[in-house]
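Hi V.,

You were right to ask for the full record rather than a summary. Here it is.
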Amino acid sequence: MKIKTASELSRQAAQDTTIYKAREVAEAWTEDLLYQLLESANLYSDKIDQNEFCIVYVIAGDPLLKNLRRRKFYCWPYLPSPRPDQGVFIFNKSLQKVTKRLWILPNAITMAELAQPGLIADKPYQSMQRWSKSFFKGTFWKDIRKEHDIKMLSQQEFDELNKDELIKRGLEKAKPDAPEAFDFSKISAGQFVNPVDSLASQNT
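Predicted structure:
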């Protein structure tokens, strides 16, 4: 059986006129999520010298195929910088399991809409609303630590706490292996224009 290429699947999706429910799309998107999280943890486990670390996924677009979305996974010893289209979990080496879902952030437009004052979100979106508001208030890591009863630092906080030692080693800042996130707290909902005309965006 011939496996279809990404471009073939993209063309097929673009021609599909079926109306999909948002919940059905979300369920299909996450059905193998735990497997992918554990696979990522296994890849990074020997490289991170601490018992608990973060597994992060981000949803990325494709520069050529507008309706293609990819989940990219990596592990991180600190709390990563929050950004749209991101999920973060805690993995415990001793237990060999994912122990906490720290946060799930939707796309930037949805984040901005959920953070609007006075908006009452439906129950399935209330956690995302809480995290989105915290993001725009600039209290994200503080609120996440309180919510989940954890003490893990962000990389920014770790660097500041260990600044003198890092300078001695000639490392003013630890070098990340993940891209720096754009600071979405500097813009508001009214400044967003949605350029994406993918199937999922049209129907969810």
